[in-house]
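FAQ: What does a ligand-bound record look like?

Like this one, built around adenosine-5'-diphosphate:
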Amino acid sequence: MIETRPKIELRDVTLRYQSPDTETLAMMGVSFSVSPGEFVSIVGPSGCGKSTSLSLIAGLEQPSAGEVLIDGAPVRRPDGTVGYMLQHDHLFEWRDVLENLMIGPEVMGLPRQPAKELARDLMNRYGLAGFEHHHPSELSGGMRQRVALIRTLVTQPDVVLLDEPFSALDFQTRLSVRDEVAMILRAERKTAILVTHDIPEAIAMSNRVIALSGRPGRVRSEYTITWAAGEVRPLDAHEQPEFQDYYDEIWEALGGSDFN
Ligand code: ADP
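The answer part, i.e. the structure of the complex:
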């Protein structure tokens, strides 16, 4: 049977942050859905609610109005369905790589042995074999990001949220790490949402790009990214003839030079 139900759905979501003396309307009437296994990027100006969208999907915030659903059920609190990958890898230097990978399973109270086997298996599959007992400072920036992604995968989430995870990396590393991350998420068949300021990054990695307007964030437009060449890995996306057109369209939708 072909699965048609969205994995993630935001229905007319509004979010107001309240504090004793201020109220910030972060997003208003936002609706979008993400299919199982799809990779979607959210782009838009600073402060338009990109990170807030991820917090809602992760159950860290509740909408002021509207609904956030995963597998058709409202998200009430954080649970193991959703994994997060952030800008800083937050690896603990006093733990070796394998023990860093065990943090999620420890926090969630998962049985240690199977989690450790899965961690080793993911390390072997994704180019980290032999680094189990290295410490984070002994790894390159790219390897650290791979460890951070694997740490997210060890708890076996269906959905992986990526909040600007490459913005601290230098340009060359960034190109290869985004390629590796996208290829790992494809191989693991995860549903993924990336928040980024970087339009080329969004185009290169995604099946679809959602552009939000300035605050309060609303969906301005959506772009389905397809290539005449078929499935294209992020490192090769820039060479595709369609790339520049996608870039120009999204850049323009975001207000061109006013963006950011
Ligand atoms: P983006 O990721 O697009 O830069 P955010 O989702 O982080 O935007 O924030 C959207 C708006 O909500 C911003 O104006 C931000 O200052 C505000 N905001 C974010 N988090 C909070 C919070 N916890 N309390 C109050 N305001 C917040």
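Follow-up question: can I read anything off the structure? Yes, for example: The pocket of adenosine-5'-diphosphate is lined by residues 17, 19, 24, 26, 44, 46-52, 215 (CB under 6 Å).
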